[in-house]
Write a structure and sequence with these properties.
- The chain is mainly alpha-helical.
- The chain folds into two domains: 73 residues; 122 residues.
- It is built from ten helices and no strands.
Length: 213
């Protein structure tokens, strides 16, 4: 089969198998840059509603004053790796290091571009492409989290996580790589006029519900 055939097969499957809803998930409305970084790192290979949501809500409640990247970095510095694990209720020191390095990346980017936190992060997200994940330079951030960060920052694209790749496999009858999944769904977006993030959200809603059951 050619790519065009695969694309048509996927679109036909999508129309028939996935409810067409204009889903807007709460996390895509963040205005706090600290929460964007927290959400992205907490979400790495974790169940979102069960693991990420309660920790984000708890952090918002207890640390409502943390609304800049520098404040979040200072919080990590003040409490150390072990102490911060208690703050976000996630005993995984490597993830704290990933969070700290992600914060540093965006602080340095904002300094270079002379932009405030959120504006700098959105500027980065719009300029980046999925292929830039290879040179992102933040240990622990793979292509799925890289894409998720771009989505959290307003870019209509696709996060090639386990649910999206399972859906593509179900549609086509064979597995695809992360980049192939992103390319396929973005081309499906162009052909159908449905935003890529909407295709992603609708598939994720169906497949994440299946996994919880």
């Amino acid at each position: 089969m050619t790519f065009e055939n695969d694309l048509d097969v996927f679109i036909k499957w999508f129309w028939s198998q996935i409810p067409q809803e204009n889903l807007i998930f709460p996390e895509f409305g963040y205005e706090n840059p600290a929460l964007i970084c927290l959400d992205a790192v907490l979400s790495i290979k974790q169940k979102y509603k069960e693991m990420v949501v309660p920790r984000i809500e708890g952090f918002q409640k207890e640390y409502a004053h943390i609304n800049t990247l520098q404040q979040l970095q200072d919080l990590i510095l003040e409490h150390g790796i072990e102490g911060f694990q208690k703050i976000w209720r996630y005993e995984y020191p490597e993830r704290v290091h990933t969070l700290d390095n992600l914060i540093k990346f965006y602080i340095e980017y904002g300094y270079r571009e002379k932009l405030t936190d959120l504006n700098a992060m959105k500027h980065w997200a719009k300029k980046a492409s999925v292929h830039d994940y290879r040179t992102f330079g933040v240990p622990g951030i793979g292509v799925a989290t890289f894409q998720y960060l771009r989505m959290l920052l307003g870019v209509s694209t696709v996060k090639p996580d386990v649910h999206i790749k399972k859906a593509v496999s179900d549609a086509l009858g064979f597995s695809v790589s992360d980049l192939e999944a992103v390319n396929l769904l973005e081309k499906a977006s162009e052909k159908t006029g449905i935003p890529a993030i909407t295709i992603d959200n609708n598939i994720w809603s169906v497949y994440s519900s299946k996994s919880r059951k």
